Here is the input.
Amino acid sequence: MKETQAYIERIKRVNRGHQRLELAVDQSLSAMLAGQAMLVRRIDKDYDSEQWDPYLRELWFPVEIQARNIVIVERPARAHFLPGQLLSIIGPVGRPFRFRHNLRNILLIAYHTTPAALLLMLPPLLAKQVGITLVLMGSARQYETSHLSEEVEVIQADDDLTWPDMVMTLGWADQVFVVVGQGDEWGYYRDVMRLMRERQADMPTNYAFAVIQRDLPCGVGACHACALNLRGAPKLPCVDGPAFDLTDLRLN
Here is the structure.
């Protein structure tokens, strides 16, 4: 991990709510794997003087990595960015997602948040012919997915968070990755755990993972402000995460 500078080369609107920024980055960042992220702040003078927070940076998960040191991230359409804008980046942060060696099918769940933290895994998994289903729950149903690969099955959950053939979908998945919004993080994970346990006789370990997206003050494990109280021992999303076994979370 190190601090580097990047700049925005291009900006593309991908749906009504989101834009993608094409970043020219240091070579170390173009080697990031799914699960790793960046701590970012803008260093434009006007932005610094009006909005810069000297403590917290924004946590950005790349959604695509291209050749010639280009990383693409997805940001809300309402956020104002300009081509040529400079960024200060600390990264990469976190550990890559760990997939089973014999992975055949994977289930991704986004609940009250966008699936951006999960999107970098799509190209390599599709290249290995892994079946991918993305379930959008709560306000995540507003996320438009027309820019995603047609090979990804997208399901819109009902208001009660269920969907047709839910038991079959859960049984079909070799692994599950879940991202939730920060409004009631632990409550949202409780909802997902309840749904899964009601429809499965057993919740094995290393099957379903919570992907933590909370703000990281330092990103290097020095401050312990992001520590999670897990069964066994506390762990740090910035060093040990962002993915943690759902069965290890103390959701109560």
